[in-house]
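Box 4.2: Ligand-aware structure prediction
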Amino acid sequence: MPEEVLFAGKTFTVPDPRHTAVLPGQLGYEKRDLIRLLGEHLSPDFTVLDAYAGVGIGTYLYLRAGASCLAVEKDAEMFACLERNLRGERAVLREQDNRRTLEELLGRGAAFDVIDLDAPGDFHEQLAMSFRLMDSGYLWLTTCEYMHIQRNLNRSTLERRYGAGIEELYLTRDRYAFQEMVSRHVEAIGSTAGHEVQLVHHAIGRTAVRLLFSVDTTVPRGLTDELSARERYFGPRRTGQAPS
Ligand SMILES: C[S@@+](CC[C@H](N)C(=O)[O-])C[C@H]1O[C@@H](n2cnc3c(N)ncnc32)[C@H](O)[C@@H]1O
């Protein structure tokens, strides 16, 4: 049953009561705070492609920061919430698989300042296409692949993708080493598309990692200062594990 949650002074309809991403202490909550921070450091008319928009809470934060947004969501139930939540807002909403959207956008030479890949599952096709839609700006990536490592799944797929170093991660389950591996991978894909890509920030939850990359842009000093002052790990901390 859909229900309503209050976040950032606005009521959002969410598909079910297990939607915990607006609770402090969750990566989903932190993710939204990071969007807010980034928005404060961008010029007020920036453009965003929110490729995994969900119910639109992240999109709403971009809009509040002054952005024009294209928000894409493929699930009908989520999309119904998204439409309802962003009614009257300056956002274009698409109920579509984002791969089709990205193809269309590439076909007409569109470009965005921020691309948000808040991907629950596979994001690799979308990642490569996204780089072709950016002159410069910021790219967010969320990956839940760490969950595969924790559960000892998809080892050969991850090995093909990231190389033999993944073997050790299946043993150590080191979240920080995982984040570094993803980051090197994203930088390599970006460089294939002719971009200089640098990791700006990462936040790690129990199963997911959220990373912010700059793409051919200099990160404002104030943003770096604010981001580096923030804690990067959310969830139960193991003894001796320090945030990097
Ligand atoms: C983690 S949620 C997004 C949360 C949202 N960014 C927020 O901050 O509220 C991921 C969403 O991506 C959607 N999704 C997954 N694969 C997709 C695809 N290929 N195209 C479009 N949407 C997709 C899922 O249905 C889900 O609603």
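In the box above, the bound molecule is S-adenosylmethionine. Residues 52-55, 57-58, 72-75, 78, 97-99, 118, 120 surround S-adenosylmethionine (CB under 6 Å).
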